[in-house]
Amino acid sequence: MAATVREVTPTRSAAIELADERKLMRQGYEFLDEKRMLLAAEMLRQLRSYEERSAQLIAETTSAAATLAAAVERHGFDQLQVHPLPESPSKPDVERTLFLGLTMRWLRAPSHPLTDAPPGMDPSPELKACRAAFARLLWTAADVGARAANLHRLAHEYRRAERRARALEKVLLPEVEDAMRRVDEQLDTMDREDVIRSRWSRTAGKPA
Questions:
Q1: 149-207: per-residue pLDDT in tens?
Q2: What local confidence, expressed as pLDDT, does residue 1 receive?
Q3: What pLDDT sits at residue 34?
Q4: Lower CB density within 10 Å: C or N end of the chain?
Q5: What are the phi and psi torsion angles at 112 (to 5°)?
Q6: Residues 133, 60: contact at Cβ < 8 Å?
Q7: Shortest CA distance to 172 belongs to which of 35, 38, 32?
Q8: Under 8 Å CB-to-CB from 150, ≥6 apart: which residues?
Q9: Is residue 118 a contact partner of residue 84, using CB atoms and an 8 Å limit?
C-alpha cells in the first residue's frame, strides 16, 4: 500500500508538528499492536473452552439419542408423544465479564433445568432419563452458542485493530515520515541559501 504525498509548508513549526504527530502515531501503533496480541491470546483461550464445550455437546447429543431410543423402545413412538411435557425451563443465568471493553457471556445451567411434568401413563425410568438428557442438552447447546458469539466478538474486534494498525504502519506513518523528510530537506536548502546570500552580501559590500 503506497503512501500518498502530503503537501506541507516547509517551516520550523511544521517540522515540530510533524514530529509530534509521528510520535502520537507510533504510540497508537504500539497500543494497537499490543491490543492485537491480547485479543489473539484471548481468542485462543476462548477457542479451547469452546471446543471443550462442543465436545461435551456432542457427547450429550449421543447420550440423549440413546435415552430417546430407550424411551421409544419402552413406550413406542406414538405413546411417547402423548406423555405430558414439563413446563418451559427458566431463564438462563447469564454470566458477564468485560475484556478490553467487550462483553463476554456464558450461561450457567440451573441445578434443576426442567420443572416437574404432570404425571402420565407409565412414568418409566426411561422416560425420566430421556427428559433429563434433553434438558442437559438444551443448556449445553445454549452455552456453546454463547461461547461462539464471544469468539465472533473477539474476532471482529481483532480485525478492527488489525486494519487500524496496518493503516498506521503502511499508510499514515510513511506519509508523515515522507513529509518530514521533504520539509527537512527544504529547510536545509533554505538555510544554505541564506548562508550563501549572507556571504554574497558581505562580499558585495566591501570596497573594490
A1: 999 999 999 999 999 999 999 999 999 999 889 888 888 888 787 777 777 766 765 55
A2: 46
A3: 96
A4: C
A5: -125, 85
A6: yes
A7: 32
A8: 46, 50, 104, 105, 106
A9: yes
Domains of the chain in sequence order: 12-187 (1.10.287.3240)
The stretch 69-78 carries a mean pLDDT of: 87
The residue to which cell 438462563 is assigned: 92
Vertex 24 angle, CA 23 and 27, to 5°: 90
Question: Letter for the amino acid at 154?
Answer: L
* Cα–Cα distance measured from residue 195 to residue 197, given in angstroms and rounded to the nearest whole number: 5
Task: Find the mean pLDDT for residues 94-103.
Answer: 90
Total Cβ atoms within 10 A of residue 54:
15
| Residue recorded with cell 441445578 | 111
Split at pLDDT 50, 70, 90, the class of 37 is very high
Residue 114: left if φ>0, alpha if ψ -120 to 50, beta else—which one? beta
Which ranges of 76-124 does DSSP label H, i.e. alpha helix?
77-81
Q: How confident is the model over 106-123, as pLDDT tens digits?
A: 887 666 555 555 555 667
Q: Answer positive or negative: Cα dihedral of 195, 197, 200, 202.
A: negative
